[in-house]
Amino acid sequence: MDDSDVPVLIVGAGPTGLALACDLARRGVGCRIVDRAPVFPSGSRGKSVQPRTLEVLDDLGVLDEVRAYGGPVLPYRAYDRDRVLGVWPSARQRAATAQVPYPNVLMVAQERVEDALRKRLARHGVRVRFGTELLTFAADDEGVTATLADRSTVEQVRARYLVAADGGRSVVRKQLEIPFEGVTYDSQHITVADVEADGLDRAHCHVWPRAAEGTIALYPLPAGRSFQLTADGDLGDRADSLRDAFAQRTDSMGIRLREVSWMSTYRVVIRAAQRFRAGRVFLAGDAAHVYPPAGGQGMNAGIQDAYNLGWKLARVLAGAPSSLLDTYEAERVPIAARTLETVSELYHRSLLGDPKGRTDPPDSGQLAVSYRGGPLALDHRGRASGLRAGDRAPDAPCHDRRGKAVRLFDVFRGPQTTVLAFGSRYAQSGTAADELHADSAAVRVVVRPGDSAPGTAIVDTHGHAHRAYDITADTVVAVRPDGHIGMICEHAALADVYRHLEALGCGDAGSGCAEPGPRP
């Protein structure tokens, strides 16, 4: 038996576990990631990447690769057997703005997202150990001892923290006996498959919502010839049964299903864990919450869990107070509860045969997800409207002092907390660096054209940043490593700034706060 130590052990190498491992690795935090599957999974599975998740993938350095295999959301064409009922937009396409560079859902197979994250993780020197199962674990005040097994060996691993990203049937959650509250529809199943089909255009998602046997749909997958087939009911595990069900529900219409490269059947489950943390063990992704397919929230919510947790683990491992980790549960549990309500409504609408029940709700892009009123949100403004602490930090196109274009997202990129200092008080050379210094965060002064400022200042050439952040007075904004606003203070008292940066794990105790990180 081989003993080894690691700061963080991640169980499960789906999108949640991979995103967390990438985030930790770029912060210099050692981690081990294992998965019981013998090889990485194939199949499209989840295929909707929401706008906020695109921003996370941008920060992690994999967006370009993911977008290369993706495409826009297509309208739905609904049929009753061979009769066309109509065409419905599945989601309103929005133009990119200064504040929101990725306003639309990207349709891309989940396997493509996972592949991009695995490659990024390998460039950080970390590889997934497939075929490795967590048998048991025991946690104490100092860490977690986990027993792992592959085909030939059993190994004990000592970790400071364990993160369970091992899916809806999480071994970790079950061993912790954390209630998984909600409902499982034992009689309701959904079959998903990747197929090639003749006789259908690739400009629409084709859906038969009124078939007596249940809804069936074919969605063209970008970057290839395949369609994702989704169908109500358990259609077995044979390609012939899938073809028979499709012919029966559609009257064939001259459509022929050819190669079936992957298929799986899922029970409809709508549940969330009562707690996301038990001491040094955390739940994330499907281990913490399971949604029905409608709305495409599962993969996206899991990546957001990882993005919220990663920087907090890194800060605490570097010496920040462990209470910072309490905020993971405090912030993510309410989000999971609200998401469950939203996707449950969508799912029940789709059960009624309403093709519009397959469209996304207005907030499904997760851009409106906010931690307002949470333990890390400090708001010192004289008004209650506009951007608030806890909200997503908007992007804005600016320039540096040499005239080179720079986005605020470029400034935020990496593992650090970023402090934006707006106003004449900070526009004088050296003032912001002297007053807000320090080793606590990367401080950038934001000035209007023509204002005097230090060489590291950002010039808000067209006023986009001032408008996005609703600046009407000298203001300090602290942006967390996960792109949410931690603090907004007008006429900032430095004591408030320092106190909040300490709460974010910055200062003498926290590392990874001082210098902006390079693009990963």
Automatic annotation (TrEMBL):
Coiled-coil regions listed: none
GO molecular function: FAD binding; oxidoreductase activity, acting on paired donors, with incorporation or reduction of molecular oxygen, NAD(P)H as one donor, and incorporation of one atom of oxygen
InterPro entries membership: FAD-bd (IPR002938), FAD/NAD-bd_sf (IPR036188), RIFMO-like (IPR050641), Thioredoxin-like_sf (IPR036249)
Keywords from the UniProt entry: FAD, Flavoprotein
FAD-binding domain residues: 5-341
Pfam families in the cross-refs: FAD_binding_3 (PF01494)
Cofactor (UniProt): FAD
Listed Gene3D superfamilies: 3.30.70.2450, 3.40.30.120, FAD/NAD(P)-binding domain
PANTHER family recorded: BINDING MONOOXYGENASE, PUTATIVE (JCVI)-RELATED, TRK SYSTEM POTASSIUM UPTAKE PROTEIN
NCBIfam families, alphabetized: PRK06184.1 (NF004832)
Family under the similarity heading: Belongs to the PheA/TfdB FAD monooxygenase family.
Name recorded for this polypeptide: 3-(3-hydroxyphenyl)propionate hydroxylase
Organism from which the protein derives: Streptomyces alboniger
